[in-house]
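REQUEST ID: PR-0412
SUBMITTED BY: lab tech R.K.
PRIORITY: routine
TASK: structure prediction, single protein chain
INPUT:
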Amino acid sequence: SVFELAKKIIKLTKSKSKITKNSNQLVKLGGYEDIQQRVPSIIKLKKIIKWKAKIDLDNGLKKMIKTFIK
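STATUS: complete
OUTPUT:
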């Protein structure tokens, strides 16, 4: 989920930032709520376009963070 990704980024950057959910903003957007359980898979993508990730999420985030810190 986006929340889990945000927590991961905060941990990797050693940030003291807090994650907040602005329910007033959600109402303006039509009451969007995050799906409680999501199990994404790239199997279909791999089959159709012969795609393969070259780097995993954690390492990709670390590289991106390093680039932005410079």
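NOTES: The chain has a mean pLDDT of 81.
REVIEWED BY: pending
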